[in-house]
Amino acid sequence: MATTTDAPAGRAVSGEDNLFTIEDLSVTYPSTDGASRGVTALEHINLNVGKGEFVSVVGPSGCGKSTLLSTVSGLLTGFDGRITVRGDTITGPHPNVGVVFQEESTFPWRNVLKNVEFGLEMRGLGKEERRKRALDMLSLVGLEDFVRSYPHHLSGGMKQRVAIARTLVMEPSILLLDEPFGALDEQTRIILGEELLRIQRALDQTVLLITHNIQEAILLSNRVVVLSARPGRMKAVVNIDLPAERDSTLLATDEFAVLVGKVWSVLREESLKAFAQEQKQDQTNHEETAHA
Amino acid sequence: MWIVRIVMIAIFLALVEVAVRTEILNPFFVPEPSSVLAGMASSVTDGDFLGMVAITLGAVLLAFAIAGIAGVLLGFVLWRIRPLGDAYEPLVAALFSSPIVLLYPIFLVIFGRNSAAIIALAALFAVLPTILFTKQALSAVNRTLLNVGRSLSMSSWNLFRHIMLPAAAPTIFTGLRIALTYVLIVVVAMEYILQIGGLGRLVAESALLFRATDLYVSVGLIVVISAAFIWLINQLERLAQR
């Protein structure tokens, strides 16, 4: 870590301080042309997330945010370092880890209820039990009136809520969110963020959110991790000392602006680097094409 | 709404009936719909007619079953084994748009002048769209949906049965509907040309003898068979998406 803007998290978490840990995680993709040097996507990532904590990861585009999510969710194997959930080392998809993807992921051939029941059904839970749990979760996310609707009748924001409910109903120890509101308009995004916060508080859910939206990260989180330009290293960890009970009216406050400034001052530098990297890459590609 | 649909069709038939009776339409070419319907109704009790319906229905059913099963399996193989897919998909697509029906003399030589030749030709033609649509349907399944399954540690079989298959079903079944169309056309056309088998031959005979009512009764029965198969396909699709 090059700079740490604040001391490590001093917040009170109930019992499990190390519910989720990432120890010295590095990910290198093998080069496509078979040459010896691969592309390093992430380097020396260390993170501890306590029970009930909401941590966001922001970073410039191409910094390895999505790689981080694929690794932590167990979908990408072959990394250096160790990831644990409740003491279990992650070597592949794990029942304690729930993922909500950025892209639309509801099953169009299943209605809302059946979508939310999906994971429970695959795990062999009885019909009545899974129905009950799915209905409870649907009322928590505010979709109790759309139980029989099919996804194509729902708005983008509602579909994401279905996806979140489908993951939460599995009662994962940690919920991973990959830009879950990335495709939504700004207003919907803020409102759904508030909803997410309410749900997170209600379940005391541990959350790791990947996003490129600074406001969203600050509004929702206890801590914001800023990644550097590629290869992604932890550039800063900013503690968000906003009141636990919060909503989007905070966006207009001075303390919020100070936090945005704090995160952005680090992120700006890295984004400029990422931008320069991209241009250089474009230029190299251009020259290669010219030579060919 | 079933009622509305039936009423719409009934109105059209009533208009034709009036047009024929007032001789706006020449009854020599267009029979009264009422007599065609009566003919279709009485054909149900007519042994000869039923025999011919059975022959056509059997040929269509067999050819469609062969094309459907073989096509979905071959499409799966072309999707699963990439080099095979890369090599054969363009070839299948090219065959699909060529007039394979014209190969019928060869089929007559191989199978003889009988239903087997007709069934084989229809199945060969119909298997092509089934292969193409199955391969493309499986290739086009959204990776995110599969990742949902993988993040739930689902087995390969469950991933296939509960995500791949239902996600691909709409496109696969579009292929099967096209396959059905081809089977019907090839079977009836071959019966017509070769003067063997069921309803196609009846159409040819009726046309030759200027029996307009019988001609339309046969065509009407072919439409009924087609509708029954489409219904069957829709039921299968719902099953795949459960």
CATH H-level superfamily of chain A = P-loop containing nucleotide triphosphate hydrolases
| Span between termini of chain A | 41 Å
The fraction of residues assigned to DSSP E strands of chain B is under 5%
Classified by CATH, the class of chain A is Alpha Beta
Q: How many separate domains make up the residues of chain A?
A: 1
| Envelope shape of chain A | globular
Strand order in space, largest sheet of chain A: 6-7-8-3-9-10
Q: Stretches of chain A where pLDDT falls below 50 for ≥5 residues?
A: 1-14
Q: Please name the CATH architecture of chain B.
A: Orthogonal Bundle
Biggest sheet record of chain A: 6 strands, mixed
Spatial gap, N to C terminus of chain B: 24 Å
The overall pLDDT of chain A, averaged over residues, is 87
Brief characterization of the structure:
The complex is a heterodimer of chains A (292) and B (242). Helix content of chain A is 37%, strand content 20%.
Can you walk through the features of this model?
- The complex is a heterodimer of chains A (292) and B (242).
- Helices cover 37% and strands 20% of the residues of chain A.
- Chain A has 7 helices and 10 strands.
- Chain A has helices spanning 65-72, 112-122, 127-140, 156-168, 186-203, 214-220, 254-291, and strands at 20-29, 39-49, 54-58, 80-85, 88-89, 97-100, 174-178, 206-210, 223-227, 234-239.
- The radius of gyration of chain A is 20 Å and the shape is globular.
- The mean pLDDT of chain B is 90.
- Chain B has a single domain (47-240), classed as MetI-like fold (Orthogonal Bundle).
- The chains are: A alpha/beta (292), B mainly alpha (242).
- Chains A and B meet through β6 and α2 of A and α7 and α8 of B.
